[in-house]
Amino acid sequence: MSVEMNPDQRIVVTGMGAVTPLGESVEESWGAVIDGQTGFRNIREDILADYPQLRVHVAATVPDFSLLRDEYFGARLTEKDLRSLHRSAQFGMLAASQALRQAGLLHPDERHEIDPGVVDPDRVGVRMGTGIGGDDELGPTRVKINKGGKSDRVMPTTILRVLPERVATSVSMYFQARGPVNTVIGACATGNLNIGDAARLLKLS
Predict the structure, then answer these.
(1) Do 130 and 194 form a contact (C-beta atoms < 8 A)?
(2) pLDDT tens-digit profile of 10-50?
(3) pLDDT tens, residue by residue, 136-161
(4) CA distances to 90, 144, 164, 190 from 158, in Å
(5) Burial environment of residue 178 by CB neighbours within 10 A (0 to 12, 13 to 18, 19 or more)
(6) Residue 42 DSSP SS3
(7) Residue in 172, 162, 188, 158 with CA at minimum distance from that of residue 128
(8) Closest Cα to residue 167, out of 95, 118, 69, 100?
(9) What is the C-alpha to C-alpha distance for residues 57 and 167, in angstroms, rounded to an integer?
(10) 0.90 cut: is pTM over it?
């Protein structure tokens, strides 16, 4: 069976979300840009202590981030739930939640998932990428192993935190988006590649 793309079909953005070094929402991030703020800051001393060979001591990090501070996730998740979620996946979940709320696609009651009364969850897909994913987990893990003794114990959830596809699959599983799920990785072009891939997928539907 052949599937044809409709090049004339318009794609409309109905919701947006963002977690950036400048803020944990689109409004905060864009407001900081307008005010001329920078997202670069000094790397924490405890991180630098593990990597004394680093010559660069600044980075565009998201400071003091906690998914549990969000009113929706805070009421539904615990610290234990976050053990299998790398920060990159948590960023994706918060941004996706903001976009879904703005688009009016979440269930109105206590369930924090796609509302089948608004859209069929089987037709809600996820295209989210990451430049590195949870790769930064490997460094501390290697340090633990090299130290030996009791400190060489590696968390059993490490592999779940390292895999780059966890950004998209975590969003899909949590919000019950049962459509096509994929992770496209392309360094700094990752975001644009996923937007383009999602747009083409919508044109096929």
Answers:
(1) no
(2) 889 999 999 999 999 999 999 999 999 999 999 989 888 87
(3) 777 777 777 777 656 557 777 777 78
(4) 15, 13, 12, 23
(5) middle
(6) strand
(7) 172
(8) 95
(9) 27
(10) no
